[in-house]
Amino acid sequence: MSQTWVVLNDIQIPFQDRKVLSLVLSFVGDLNPDGVVLNGDITDCYPISDFVRSPGSHSDIMVEVRESQKLMTSLKDVSKKIWAGGNHEDRMRRYQWKRIPDLAKHPNLTFDALFHMADYGFSWLEYGESVQLGKLMVTHGHLVSKHSAWSGKMTLEQYGTSVMVGHTHRLGVHYKRDIRGVHGAWENGCLCRLDPEYVRHPNWQQGFSVVHVEPNGFYSVQQIPILPGPSFMYGKDRIR
After folding, report:
1. What span, in angstroms and rounded, lies between the C-alpha atoms of 103 and 99?
2. Model-level pTM greater than 0.85?
3. Is the pLDDT of residue 198 over 90?
4. Per-residue model confidence as pLDDT tens digits over 117-162
5. Average pLDDT over residues 221-226
6. Are 175 and 184 contacting, i.e. CB atoms less than 8 angstroms apart?
7. Burial of 110 (0-12, 13-18, 19+ CB in 10 A)
8. CB 3.0–4.6 Å: which of 1, 103, 167, 224 could bond 141 by disulfide?
């Protein structure tokens, strides 16, 4: 039996675009997919970032925990749920190794334990690990090009397989045919705000993907750009 999965990434709580995220989560509830992959940078971990932070910021890691738990609660009816860490979630590990190395391996201080993922039915994958949706590899990614789809292209060339990545905050797809057949690389956009305090007029695009997977591993990807409103198209329907 075929399965339907939704892949979301780069929400970057507490900098999520609340209207867009609400629209997408409502759609996911109506779609009732077999599974959801939160493909990294779901939370920003802003208070423990190494980057210079706004002096007016009142961000608190517990705010990010609570907002993330609201997100996980909204997905409670999905049977298969995976949170694959990105470089922002990995800020927690880097912070611990730098500031509290003696406690870094405590089982209650891991990222998934602090966010209580198991309580919400989520499986956790560390940054750099991947999910296989049939023959499609889904991972947060670490390569960045300034051009849409080029980061996906570089990742496909690195891993030698079809891949979906987040990380770049861009939408794009690159196809390649070789002796083994046709391969694809998708960059999956973002669901965060497009007016961050640390960069002006970023070349980002909001979006997400629905992936249909057949029992033999073949798959199809419907990449869904967020349109003004906000709204988006799914098949012939405009969701708003």
Report:
1. 9
2. yes
3. no
4. 999 999 999 999 999 999 999 999 999 999 999 999 999 999 999 9
5. 98
6. yes
7. middle
8. 167
Token digits of residue 214: 């057949």
* Nearest-angstrom CA–CA distance, 64 and 197: 17
| Model confidence at 179: pLDDT above 80 | yes
Contacts of 153 (CB under 8 A, 6+ apart): 145, 174, 176, 185
In the chain the first and final C-alpha atoms are separated, in Å, by 30
Q: Are residues 173 and 155 in contact, defined by beta-carbon separation less than 8 angstroms?
A: no
Measured CA to CA, the distance from residue 111 to residue 162 in angstroms comes to 28
Q: Is 227 helix (H, G, I), strand (E, B) or coil?
A: strand
Contact 44/15 with Cβ under 8 angstroms? yes
What backbone torsions phi and psi does residue 188 show, to the nearest 5 degrees?
-105, 20
